[in-house]
Amino acid sequence: MTTTATRTVRVDLAGRSYDILIGRDQLAGAGAAIAAATKARGCLIVTDEVVARHHLATLEASLTSAGLTHATLVLPAGEKTKCWAYLEKTTEAIIANKLERGDAVVALGGGVIGDLAGFASAIARRGMRFVQLPTSLLAQVDSSVGGKTGINSPLGKNLIGAFHQPNLVIADTGVLDTLSMREFRAGYAEVVKYGLIDRPEFYHWLEAGAWRGIFSGGPEREEAVAISCAAKAAIVARDETETGDRALLNLGHTFGHALEALVHYDGARLVHGEGVAVGMAMAHRFSQSLGLCSQEIPSRVAAHLQEVGLPTKLQDVPGDIGSPEAILEAIRQDKKVSRGTLTFILTRDIGASFIAKDVPADKVLDFLRSEAA
Ligand code: GLY
Fold it and tell me: Is residue 321 part of a domain?
């Protein structure tokens, strides 16, 4: 069975360019698209127990009808799976199933599965074909696009990995119907992020009410995923390995990652997208406190995030997250700190963000103290 994508976004990277197919019911036609994009004869599907229950049978049937042989590795769901032990299990499954370099690893899942399977595909047989079938909103608009793959170290998140671009991404927006509201909302924070980075019209459209259609599964959902992917693709195309502009994608992440670390990555207290929402609201207030943008800007951003039910303040994170000094220390530990200087993504307006290097630590501390008060 083949289906027609309602949207195609191209990631333009010369010999490593690829398409992102976006639309409902894409999983049912994934086999043919994977065969065409990879020319593989066989593949390993890597997924997790939760996603497998909902979507594995559809994918397997589609691969069979496209004539692709396939084996499946089902891993536990959750961030802890992004570790050396499961990386080893995945690479061993590739080798045990006699897959060659021209065969494909197919990630069916959210960001954890995509990052882990992508890294396995980067290193097994010195680099194999790779396809992302993201099943969370966050993975559809962020982690499945742009080639960042990896696992966590006991010393921090995403510290071990490689850039390895997929050959194809298929974002089936219908699969998002099975997400919990909390998970969907957390992914929505990354959608808002693209408007705030450099697409003010997109932000205005979201804020004016398109968000309701995105949440309820209307046509706005495909539109928002496509615009988000196009926004990310444009940045990745000009800075694939994050030597410059790609850092803009970290808007909200410097504060957000610090908060995630301070709650010890306890997803019951704070999931990644929620940390990004608090972080984006803080980055806008910080920009205003530095005199970079008007008072109205952070208020507007916080109001929209609150309207969809996302947290925007330190006080919205349940339990004690620690002192302003502890938050500053967590920021210093984050990999976005380059040789000890503090780098933030700040803004002059909605959709007018920029990379600010060498932000003085005392200004950050003053701001954190005002936020904690
Ligand atoms: N998620 C940020 C990036 O892909 O660069």
Answer: yes
Question: Which tens digits make up the pLDDT trace of 254-288?
Answer: 999 999 999 998 999 999 999 999 999 999 999 99
49 carries an active-site annotation: no
| 39 counts as catalytic | no
**Quick one: what percent of the chain has pLDDT higher than 70?**
97
- Full domain range(s) for residue 131: 7-178
Instruction: Please report the DSSP string for 45-64 in residue order.
Output: EEEEHHHIIIIIHHHHHHHH
Helix (H) or strand (E) holding 255: helix 253-262
Which CATH number belongs to the domain containing residue 213 in this structure?
A: 1.20.1090.10
What's the CATH number where 126 sits?
Answer: 3.40.50.1970
Query: What pLDDT is stored for residue 5 in this prediction?
Result: 58
pLDDT greater at residue 266 or residue 58: 58
Give the active site residue among 190, 207, 222, 260. 190
How many structural domains is the chain composed of?
Answer: 2
Q: Is the CB of 222 under 6 A from ligand 1?
A: no
Q: How far is the CA of 373 from the centre of ligand 1 (A)?
A: 32
Domain boundary pick from 178, 193, 211: 178
Residue 199 is a catalytic residue: no
Residue nearest to atom 2 of ligand 1 (CA): 249
Neighbours of 41 (CB within 10 A): 14
pLDDT tens track for 301-316: 999 999 999 999 999 9
